[in-house]
DNA sequence: CGTTATTAATAACAAGTGTTATTTTAACAT
DNA sequence: ATGTTAAAATAACACTTGTTATTAATAACG
């Protein structure tokens, strides 16, 4: 079964990924991808059923890159694991603005797992262990930290903010330690209340 | 100068605004706006030079609505002024998701005033007064609070988060009081250092 | 009541984009 | 070398959207 085989799915993906990285998903279209590969639009439809399928593959590729950011910042040991997750998210937003917008600033869809990911549960466990929090407390603590991290990252990706990693690190520590203090306060209050209840 | 005058600029603006509120700027186009008014696209080009001009007017209208949110939440007195600003931002994100995305989740452009708005300066002044902060400290404090508020609002607008106002209020207080504690700590450290320097 | 100015409707053009039909090209088997 | 066949180029179609040309309608004025 002889043929003439040249333009691979991978090559298309790579060309489209460069486009999306630099100019965003809004600029991805068949003719532009083809132009960057110096070919016609036909090969695209040989490797993908339609543009939607290509775009889905691009999202996957973007997510893989994000995962590598997290893995690297955790492995590097520059920060403790919980903080490293946040720093990686912010670093990704800063270095890959378009991909960040694609992955984290789109409307949530039904595909997005509402289920609790292992990564999420690992972070919750980490907070419980490090700060002596209950499961509910850890979840709220994490929500508060994560919305904060997301705020920094989102404003960075849209160019409202330009942070170096030193300031980002400081902001995360401020928030984290501030919350530890708050949650400590709450524990004290609960204890006081219990004591009172006991003495009555 | 006789004529026949019926479809006003205002009517077009109103129809387009309903569209943008419900379905976002991406869905605003001449034919759809016309369809909603039960007329052709011609009148649009009588009142506006082009669609870009219409869209700019829509952004202005959206901003006016946002300003009314802030004004109302400050005037209501339900929260102290600094907190009210944040609560209004979050409420706007929750009740007008598309408008929020339009105003606050787009890439920053050159039009966006890099200059320090009076509103911003008023909030800084408020923080200085209430918490005894220096100008620099207040600016950083505000940056930390505002990125947090933005994170909550942005995740709400994209449906990753669904908060009632009670939880939003609690989250803001947690962050605010946590930061007050942190900035208090820093002041102590500085004082300790000064004392040491003095004794040498 | 007819003229005229102005608005709106209709139709059309242009550009962009997804997609498919048709033709051409080139690698491999024979 | 040549025929077969997959892949690629070219061309075309469909649809969307911004915009403009042309035509029809209508209100104001004499």
Write a concise keyword list for the protein shown above.
200 residues, mainly alpha, 9 helices, elongated, DNA-binding
Question: Summed up, what is this model?
Answer:
2 copies of one chain form a homodimer. The first copy, chain A, is built from 9 helices and no strands.
Give the helices and strands, then pairings.
2 copies of one chain form a homodimer.
Chain A: H1 9-23, H2 30-37, H3 42-47, H4 51-76, H5 81-95, H6 97-104, H7 118-131, H8 135-157, H9 165-199
Helix pairs in contact in A: 1-2, 1-4, 4-5, 4-6, 5-6, 5-8, 5-9, 6-8, 7-8, 8-9
Chain A binds a DNA duplex (30 and 30 nucleotides) through helix 3.
Q: What oligomeric assembly is this protein in?
A: homodimer
- Topology order of chain A in helix (H) and strand (E) letters: HHHHHHHHH
Gross morphology of chain A: elongated
Low-pLDDT sequence parts of chain A: none
Q: Over all CA atoms, what is the radius of gyration of chain A?
A: 23 Å
Distance separating the two termini of chain A: 90 Å
Question: What's the average pLDDT of chain A?
Answer: 93
What class, by secondary structure content of chain A? Answer: mainly alpha
Helix fraction of chain A, binned, reads over 70%
């Amino acid at each position: 079964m002889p043929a003439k085989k040249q333009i691979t799915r991978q090559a298309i993906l790579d060309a489209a990924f460069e486009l999306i990285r630099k100019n965003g998903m809004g600029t991805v279209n068949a003719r532009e991808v083809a132009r960057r590969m110096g070919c016609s639009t036909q090969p695209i439809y040989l490797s993908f059923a339609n543009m939607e399928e290509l775009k889905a593959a691009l999202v996957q590729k973007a997510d893989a890159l994000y995962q590598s950011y997290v893995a690297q910042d955790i492995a590097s040991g520059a920060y403790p694991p919980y903080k490293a997750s946040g720093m990686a998210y912010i670093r990704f937003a800063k270095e890959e603005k378009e991909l960040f917008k694609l992955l984290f600033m789109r409307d949530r869809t039904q595909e997005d797992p509402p289920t609790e990911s292992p990564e999420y549960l690992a972070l919750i466990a980490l907070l419980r262990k490090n700060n002596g929090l209950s499961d509910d407390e850890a979840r709220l603590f994490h929500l508060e930290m994560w919305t904060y991290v997301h705020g920094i990252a989102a404003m960075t990706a849209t160019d409202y903010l330009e942070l170096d990693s030193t300031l980002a690190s400081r902001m995360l520590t401020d928030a984290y330690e501030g919350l530890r203090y708050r949650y400590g306060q709450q524990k004290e209050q609960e204890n006081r209340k219990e004591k009172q209840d006991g003495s009555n």
